[in-house]
Design a protein that fits this description.
8 helices, 10 strands, alpha/beta, 32% helix, five-stranded mixed β-sheet, 219 residues
Length: 219
């Protein structure tokens, strides 16, 4: 099963240019069976929304829900994830194995330290990966509080230094992931993973990642 692991929607992520429905169309045409929506769960996103913490999370989930609606019509499975810049630096982290209740229960996840983020993820059965850790100005964070590394990031507008990221992950015996980091139309199908069998939701995706059975797409 071919799955995009890192994609953003313009409904939520300010740096994304493509609405959720168009993301779905692009990945159907590219031959993927699922897309993981990992919109930015950052202070500048959530705190720009109005209302209570719960109401802000509801607004944050708009891109995922619109993608779900379009995916049901198009036959593309939509999986919930998120990308968050947590306390302690500018680095981004990808979270797999969550559902909407996890986000409602952690409405200020972006304020957590890495250790706190890792702990709440593991309490929920989720995994914490660091995204594109070797881009200029970024650094790999504490491997004790990581499950994996995005060792291949296909975004064409950034130098992600993917070989360095992979070498660091290997050195610290961390899991691997690959994603397109989809923000614009040119980003489609530049990464992702292929898993044996069917994956229906984020919990099953996290379980497959933990087993290390996914093949990296490195376009």
């Amino acid at each position: 099963m071919k799955i995009e692991m890192h994609a953003h929607t313009s409904e939520v992520s300010p740096c994304a240019c493509v609405p959720a429905a168009n993301v779905v169309d692009a990945y159907v045409k590219a031959g993927y069976q699922a897309v993981t929506i990992t919109d930015h769960f950052n202070s500048y996103v959530l705190e720009a929304f109005s209302g209570s913490p719960r109401e802000r999370v509801t607004q944050y989930l708009e891109g995922f829900r619109r993608a779900q609606e379009a995916g049901e019509k198009a036959g593309l499975r939509i999986i919930l994830g998120m990308e968050s810049c947590i306390a302690g630096g500018r680095e981004d982290f990808l979270v797999y194995g969550i559902d909407t209740e996890f986000i409602y229960a952690n409405p200020t996840f972006y304020r957590y330290t890495q250790e706190e983020a890792y702990r709440v993820c593991h309490e929920y059965g989720a995994l914490l990966f660091q995204a594109h850790p070797c881009r200029p100005g970024l650094s790999p964070r504490d491997p004790k509080f990581l499950d994996g590394i995005e060792v291949y990031n296909g975004n064409p507008r950034h130098e992600s230094n993917n070989p360095r990221a992979r070498a660091w992950a290997e050195e610290h015996h961390l899991l691997f992931s690959s994603g397109s980091d989809y923000h614009e139309t040119e980003d489609v199908a530049r990464g992702g993973m292929i898993f044996p069998g069917e994956i229906h939701n984020s919990k099953e995706l996290a379980a497959a990642l933990a087993k290390g059975v996914g093949e990296l797409i490195e376009t």
